[in-house]
Amino acid sequence: MNDLPVKDLVDVSNREFFTLFAKRTGMYIGYTDLRGVVTDIEGYDMASRRSGQPGLQGWREWLIQRYQVVPDLVWAAQINQIALPDWDFAASLTAEQETHVLTVLFDLLDTFLAERESPRT
């Protein structure tokens, strides 16, 4: 049918889940726009933390430290700042810009989770 294995999402790590989610956002939430993806990720984080898991704890701080983004912004706006450094924050994103921001978001999220999962020496 396709090259993605069917997995029970209960048995995957946060990193594996977001890799699957990034490849098929429409399958998971019914649409693929940036606002929907950000909302879903925030809900995932909240549910994880409420169940005693780390969720995305440290994500925003990681972005601030690593990319020197404006610290007063929510993480979604920080991602826009990283992906589109010349964006003026007031303009609506084009479809191409949204696609680029989503690519950057999932790449950064994967890097963050990989670093968090790796044993510290």
Form type:
globular
Work out the number of β strands.
Answer: 0
What is the overall number of helices?
A: 6
Would you tell me the overall average pLDDT?
A: 89
Q: Over the alpha carbons, how many angstroms does the gyration radius reach?
A: 15 Å
Structural domain tally: 1
Intertermini distance: 42 Å
Structural class: mainly alpha
- Ranges where pLDDT stays below 50 over 5 or more residues in a row are none
String of helices and strands: HHHHHH
Main sheet properties: none
Strand content: under 5%
Give the % helix. 55-70%
Question: Could you please describe the fold and organization of this structure?
Answer:
By secondary structure, the protein is mostly helical. It has one domain. It has 6 helices and no strands. Helix 1 runs antiparallel to helix 6, helix 4 runs parallel beside helix 5 and helix 5 crosses helix 6.
In short:
The protein is mostly helical and about 120 residues long. The protein has one domain. The chain contains six helices and no strands.
